[in-house]
C-alpha cells in the first residue's frame, strides 16, 4: 500500500522495502489485496493514535465497512468491549467477528443505546454521527473523526464535554502490516471481500462503493 504517491490501480508497485510485509499464507492474492489500506487505517487508529487498552469501551461507526469490520476485530484483539453501528441485516455477521454490541442506526437512538466510551472511531464522519460520537464518549475519551475532519462547532462541543477529537491519515508501515498479517494467518482476524471486479469494471466497483452499503471490501483483479 502506497497511499501518497500511487493514487492508481496497478498489479506491480515500487516502494521502499520498509512499506511491505509478507502476504498471510492462508490468503490468496485477491483477498490479500483487500487488507493493507483498510487494515493499516483501522490498526493505526486503534493502536498508535488511540492506544486502546484491555477492557476499554470502543465504538466503531460503520462497523460493517472495509475499515470498520477490521477495526471491530482489532479492537477485540486489544481486549476492548466493542460496539458497532450497522444495518440490522449485518448484525449477526458482526457479532460473529466479535462485536459485543451492535446498534441499528436506522431504528435506534445511538446516544440512548450506548455511552461512557473511551474511544469512538467515526468512519461515517457526518455532522450527525460526529455529534453522536462526542455525546457517547466519556470525559477524557477520544473521538477519531475519519473521513472529513471536524467543524469548529463540533470541536467547541467536544471541548465543553472534555472529549478529545482527532483526525488521522493512514501511513505506509511494513512493521504494522506484518503484525496484521500474523493476526490473519493465526485465524484471529478475517478479511471480508464482498465482490471481486475485473479492472475493466472499476467504474461499477466505484458506483457500488458510492452507495455506501458494502460489507467488507471490494477488490479489483488485474487478470
Ligand atoms: N483517513 C484515512 O487514512 C482513511 C483511510 C481509509 C479510509 N478512510 C475513510 O474511512 C471511511 C470508511 O471507509 P470504508 O472503506 O470502511 O467505507 P465503506 O466500506 O464504503 O463503508 C461502507 C459501510 O458503511 C456503513 N454505513 C454507511 N452509512 C452509515 C451510517 N450512517 N452509520 C453506520 N454505518 C454506515 C454501511 O453499512 P450499512 O449498510 O449497515 O449502512 C457499509 O457497510 C471512508 O470515508 C474512507 O474514505 C480514511
How would you summarize this macromolecular structure in one to three sentences?
The chain is of the alpha/beta class and 223 residues long. It has 9 helices and 8 strands.
How far apart are the termini?
Answer: 19 Å
Work out the count of structural domains. Answer: 1
Tell me the number of strands. 8
What is the radius of gyration computed over CA atoms, rounded to a whole number of angstroms? 17 Å
CATH fold-level label: Rossmann fold
Q: How large is the count of helical segments? A: 9
Q: How large a portion of the residues is in β-strands, by DSSP E?
A: 15-25%
Gross geometry: globular
Poorly predicted parts: none
The bound ligands are:
NADP nicotinamide-adenine-dinucleotide phosphate
Query: What is the string of helix and strand elements?
Result: HHEHEHEHEHEHEHEHE
User: What is the fourth-level CATH superfamily?
Assistant: NAD(P)-binding Rossmann-like Domain
What fraction, in percent, of the residue positions are helical? 25-40%
CATH architecture: 3-Layer(aba) Sandwich
The biggest sheet amounts to: 6 strands, parallel
The CATH class is Alpha Beta
The residue-averaged pLDDT reads 94
Q: What is the SS-derived class?
A: alpha/beta
Can you list the strand order of the major beta sheet?
A: 3-2-1-4-5-6
Amino acid at each position: 500500500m502506497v497511499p501518497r504517491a500511487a493514487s492508481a490501480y496497478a498489479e506491480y508497485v515500487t516502494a521502499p522495502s520498509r512499506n511491505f510485509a509478507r502476504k498471510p499464507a492462508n490468503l490468496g492474492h485477491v483477498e490479500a489485496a483487500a487488507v493493507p489500506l483498510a487494515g493499516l487505517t483501522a490498526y493505526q487508529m486503534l493502536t498508535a493514535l488511540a492506544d486502546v487498552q484491555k477492557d476499554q469501551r470502543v465504538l466503531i461507526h460503520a462497523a460493517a465497512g472495509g475499515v470498520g469490520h477490521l477495526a471491530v476485530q482489532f479492537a477485540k484483539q486489544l481486549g476492548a468491549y466493542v460496539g458497532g453501528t450497522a444495518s440490522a441485516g449485518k448484525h449477526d455477521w458482526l457479532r460473529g467477528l466479535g462485536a459485543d454490541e451492535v446498534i441499528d442506526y436506522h431504528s435506534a437512538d445511538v446516544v440512548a443505546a450506548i455511552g461512557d466510551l473511551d474511544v469512538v472511531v467515526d468512519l461515517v464522519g457526518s455532522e450527525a454521527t460526529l455529534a453522536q460520537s462526542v455525546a457517547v464518549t466519556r470525559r477524557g475519551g477520544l473521538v477519531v473523526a475519519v473521513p472529513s475532519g471536524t467543524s469548529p462547532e463540533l470541536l467547541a462541543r467536544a471541548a465543553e464535554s472534555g472529549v478529545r477529537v482527532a483526525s488521522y491519515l493512514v501511513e505506509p508501515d511494513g512493521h504494522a502490516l506484518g503484525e496484521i498479517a500474523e493476526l490473519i494467518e493465526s485465524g484471529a482476524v478475517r478479511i471480508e471481500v464482498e465482490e471481486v471486479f475485473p479492472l475493466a469494471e472499476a467504474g461499477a466497483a466505484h458506483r457500488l462503493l458510492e452507495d455506501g452499503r458494502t460489507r467488507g471490501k471490494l477488490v479489483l483483479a488485474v487478470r
